[in-house]
Amino acid sequence: MIPRDQQTASTGERARGYFSYAVFAFSLIAGIALGLALTRIQGPLQRSNAEPWQLRAEDRQHYQIAIALEYAYKRDLPAALNKLIAMRPAQDPLEALAQAACALGSSGYLRSESGIRAIRSAVALYSSQGRAGCAEQLLPQEATLAAPAIATEVAPNAGFATPLPTKPPLPDSGADAAVRRLAPTPAPQRRFEARVARSFCDAANPALIEARVVDYLGRGIPGQRIRVRWADQEDIFVSGLKLDRGDAYADFQMEEGIEYSIDMPGAADPLGASLSTGACYTDNRRTLKSWRVTFVEI
């Protein structure tokens, strides 16, 4: 038999061992929790290289205005449209730009000259593509500054001294050389060819002109202006604005009984045939005929 004093000592050692393990486990858990808390408070995770569509709503608005400012400087419409499309808005990218300009213009953005210039750039961009918003009414009117006239009183019978020339006049050849300027070379205009249109019958998309703009490899080209004309009216729509249909796609809603011509202003001649809708049948259902037109870069 084990003496009583030895049993008591063994039991005490086991109790102390269990207590030490419990203290160690508790300290470890508390240390991990404290480290995570300090890391979250003092050094939160910083995200970098975020895509434009991942920005917060307010930052997205400022980014859209920055795109408009870049367009005002470079006048590169396809590049501006591509960047607006890349933000993946829930609606038309140009309408999203108009809403951003309206929201910023209503929140004190117009208190500075730089803010006014930025909003004017946004208005110029979306207005050029037939969109409108409230920012136009928020902008102050542009004042035309005239040089103030300085009245000088001339005494009667006052004599005027003829000023002596300080330098002899340059010869004609030198003057011509001094004012000669080189004309800037314009960027080459992209050219497209309208391919034969094909009609189709689709009850889900009746009376629609579906246009596609592609390069010679068949890749879609966004930001290209397409024009539809009828009677004494016309409308401009742009490829790539409907994100779910791809970079090449654009469409126009027709009305029955009207003939339409389609081209690309300054980039493609009108399609040889006019387009009009009429009755067609699919799955024994009557609907209106639609058309597909492709503009191919040449």
Question: What is the gist of this entry?
Answer:
The protein is of the alpha+beta class. Helix content is 36%, strand content 17%.
Describe the structure.
With 298 residues, this protein is α+β, with helices and mostly antiparallel strands. Among the domains are: 87 residues, no CATH class; 106 residues, Immunoglobulin-like (Sandwich). Helices cover 36% and strands 17% of the residues. The longest helix is centred in the N-terminal third of the chain and has 39 residues. It is extended and about 95 Å long.
Q: What would CATH call the homologous superfamily of the domain at 192-297?
A: Immunoglobulins
Helix/strand structural class: alpha+beta
Number of helices: 7
Q: What is the string of SSEs from the N terminus onward?
A: HHHHHHHEEEEEEEEE
Distance between the termini: 106 Å
Q: Determine the CATH topology of the domain at 192-297.
A: Immunoglobulin-like
- Architecture (CATH level 2) name of the domain at 192-297: Sandwich
Supply Rg. 36 Å
Q: Spans with pLDDT under 50 lasting ≥5 residues?
A: 144-154, 175-187
The whole-number mean of residue pLDDT values reads: 78
> Which range best describes the helical content: under 10%, 10-25%, 25-40%, 40-55%, 55-70% or over 70%?
25-40%
How many extended strands?
9
At the first level of CATH, the class of the domain at 192-297 is Mainly Beta
Which range does the strand content fall in? 15-25%
Overall form: extended
Largest sheet: 6 strands, mixed
